[in-house]
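Before relying on records like the one below, remember that each one covers exactly one chain. Contacts with other chains, cofactors or solvent are not represented anywhere in the record.
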Amino acid sequence: MAARRSRAVGVLLSAAVLWMAGGAVGAEGAAGSSGATWERLMASAQALGAQGRYDRAEEVLKEALKEAEGFGPDDERLAATLNNLAGVYRLQKKHKEAEALFRRAVERLEKADKPNRPRIATCYNNLAMIYMEEEKHAEAEALLKRALELREDALGPDHAEVALSVHNLAMFYLGRARYAEAEPLCKRSVEMMEKAHGPDHPEVGSALMNLASLYRARKEYAKAEPLLDRAVAIARKAFPPYHPAVAASLGGQARLYSDQGLHAKAEPLYRRVLAINERVYGPDHPNVVLALMALAENLCEQGKFAEADPLLERALATHEKGLGPDHSSLAVTLDNYAVLLRMMNRGDEADRMEERARAIRAKQAKDPSGK
């Protein structure tokens, strides 16, 4: 169709905080009651962050910061706390506060008698995420390159943390459509994961999917297909049938078939992804909304409009229920819905969806701090 919604080429930088673990930092000074309190707070905050409870994680990390400031300015536990609190700020779109704390963490680490370069690299990676979200691409690239250099120099070329930096830089280039620069990094990531974990490890599957995403973007489908087939096999071997990793690999296969116009072949895969996401996350999760929209688009491509229509209605209702009527990401769902409505020759309804999306964006422009 002429106005197709865009599909993501691949995941860019991890959406999660690159945490600095509590117990590994400043272990020599952690024996006292204050150190024990700090350890407990850091562990609690990380658990809250994993649950998406960022407001509560912020409160706990502020308590941990008070404890850490009592250890002295050169104690690495202070840098770890600053990093983690900055990461939580980033996830709440508090970019100004996050950037200031990341820079403060780097300053603390760099002033140490023996700077901990891997931890400095972690801060650089996290700061790069902020710049990515603010579309400061040159700044983000410089930080990602520097993080990779620091980790390679400190840890050697095959360390797991080096693999993370290779992945992040590869995904940065992939997201910018700089495929010539992304390809050797994606290949290196696969090789590193195979060497570290063996050929059938889930990390290998993730690296294969990233390389396949590059080939999909370049329309080199014959190169992408065996990589995705292998990623699916790895996921099915490593995880139970209803697992997010299985859904991710099947979704990659489905998108590859869709790219080639093989919509009937893709349909059962999209249905399976939806079933897994419903089982794993429940019926109202954003991942279910995405799966509903993907399946609806597939059905529209096949002319199965009667089957697609209730999926679209459910996706919109679920998204609005979960995030409210004015959430920024709802505008994307409305635009996608409008594209599919036009495929059904329902232009008037599509116009209304697009008008709602414009109104949401206009409201967001007046209040950028809103969700």
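The first helix runs from residue 33 to 50.
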